[in-house]
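User: Second chain of the day. Same drill as before.
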Amino acid sequence: MTKRIITTVIILICILIQLAIASEKELDMAKAKQNSLVEVIVTAKDTKDRLTVKEPVTLSKSNGSESLVTVEIDDSKTFQTITGFGGAFTEATAYTLSRMSPDKRAEAIKAYFDPKEGIGYTLCRTHINSCDFSLGNYAYNEVDGDTELKHFDISRDKRWLIPLIKDAMAVEGASFKLFSSPWSPPAWMKTNGQMNQGGKLKPEYREAWALYYAKYIKAYAKEGIDIWGLTVQNEPAATQRWDSCLWTAEEEGAFVRDHLGPTLEKQGLGDTKIIIWDHNKDIIFERVEPILSDPEAAKYVWGVGFHWYSGDEFDHLDKVHEAFPNTNLLFTEGCQEGGVHLNDWKIGERYGHDILGDLNSWTVGWVDWNMVLDERGGPNHVDNLCDAPIIADTVRNELIYENSYYYLGHFSKYIRPGAVRIASSVNKDNLEVTAFKNTDGKVAVVVINRTPEAVDFDLKVGDAVAKTSSPARSIMTLLY
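Assistant: Same format as last time:
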């Protein structure tokens, strides 16, 4: 009897100890949740901070003492899901890196695609045929009248472009989607008989041009490169000195509906994402409304691409989303024009402001233009020189990281594919903010301060607050 009592007492003691341990764990978890650490990453003008990890701050229950500026996050309200961030593989980028030493070339590739030591690009663009950032005009089939495309050949891309894409794919931990854009059909398919200076696709070559995209996708697949998506035409409303081709909205819609969509399906490529417009925001709604209002064309369209060269115009993106909420909005190109702008902080701020504004207006991805250019901002076959986030000084064999590289990294490194935008707001106009919840549950809040003064603010999440400060002329990412 006594043994039974002793055994029972021991069992009860063990149960009480286990309950006490469980309660203590629950209490610790509750405290940890209530007092969680917020990681702080900063890039700021007139400092050495470049994606620099700073001392974390504590997110804890508010004590009633509040700053004048409050950034408030509410993850109960959700918006679009992110596809990715990245830049463009161009012949100019690939050729420029081929002129650098092997270690510098590898460094640049790692800087973009390594998700830990770099900024982890996940969505990239390249060109079909030549673009202005090629060494000259070229097409994959320059045999006049070859509508069956028997002479289709991507060997030009195998010299510089394809090896660069493959080396990016080989970076440890790298994973990115790739979409492609044509600047112009071959000269023989066009009304002006050349790839430059606009012109149009001749009606009799619409079917051959649709087949051209399919041939391209299959040729790249043979090289081990999957093409995730296509834009129908780069900047279809612009007659450029370089490779260009004009399309009206009605022509683009009819081409997608009657030729490109059906051809991709017939060729077993129906999963390829088709992106229309691929030009500025100023007339984006007027251009896509006729296409997306046609159900036979719209069924083939994954999204609307756009550029930044006409200004912010974030409200135009909102208008497209409101009218066509199931169509994705994707930023497909932007760069600083006018050659290289070393040490100009406004360039990074332009990137940050546009990315953040686009994201807050339903954009699912943001793709920069050339990843690397040389010390002049080229090469470019019509001398349309521009800046890039990494400049390769081919004379000194040096890589120069522009502030735009770091501004991009505050988004691409910490907001990963599958992340969902959540509600964010700030009660003063001296800060800009957006927020996303990643698939691992971690929230990334991006805060931009374009003013000349530091701004102290409260990060408010529910009834918890973290006190921190945004340095003058800075971008910061907060993770919790």
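The longest helix spans residues 2-34.

User: Great, on to the next one.
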